[in-house]
Structures are given as structure tokens and as C-alpha cells.
Specification:
alpha+beta, Immunoglobulin-like, single chain, 9 strands, five-stranded antiparallel β-sheet, four-stranded antiparallel β-sheet
Amino acid sequence: MKRSMTLIAFAVVGVLAFSSLASGKSAQTSANVMTFRAALNTGQVVPHLKNANPRASGHFTATLTGTTLKWTLTFSHLSGPAMAAHIHMGARGKNGMALVALCGPCKSPISGTANSVPDDVVALMNSGAYVNVHTAKNAEGEIRGEVTVAR
């Protein structure tokens, strides 16, 4: 199952990269500024957690300028320290591979910058990505939020 998910992920990234190259244009230009956000909670984690603290929550915001992603992540009421946080590929209700490592270990609030974010990752963030915060008790993710383009 993991192998097929990895192969599908590479195929999607390859198609997006190829279509960007075939068009003769980058999927974005350095003049583009995009803002993303996500509201994280336990209810969005797949599969659903048992005995999760319903108060566990977080908020993610990011601004992409050219290929530089500046982000801020806050969270509270987790079962323990946040071991890591990532932006993952995956549609609502589906899990996927990590695209961008945000932090590890993480303390709230935390901000950072990811440089040289490729166009295919940006395309995935526009069409199906989520932020996940991982703890020791919930290593696959304790809170999750779907990434949306802020309007």
C-alpha cells in the first residue's frame, strides 16, 4: 500500500512538472504572492483518532513569494510535545507523503521559511495538501488541517 502511494505521488509530481515544462512557462512567477491557511484539529486526522483530546487544535498560515514559503504554525492541547510538523500531499480524507518539513521538534508558536519550493509542490498545495502535527502518542498525526488558498 505504501509503495503504491509513493508511486502515485511520484507520478502526480512528474505530470505536474512535465505540464509546467511543456507549457514553456513556470506554474508561478516571482511576482506572484499566494497566501495559504489551514485550521487544524483532531477530527480531520485519517484514520480518526480514538481517545483524542477534542480541544487539540492549531492554525497554519503561509505566504509564498516566488519560491520562498514563509509560514507560522500554532497549536495547543496536544497529548505531548510536537515531534514534527509537515505539509503533506493528499486530498481531504486521504493520507499522503510529506512535501515540506516545517519543524521537528516543534514548539508553539513557531515560524520558518522554506526556500526553493518547486512549482509542482505549489500546484499540490493549491489542489490537495494538508498540514499535520505529529506527537509521540500519535506518530501519524494528532491534528490535521486542509490547506486552502486564503482569499
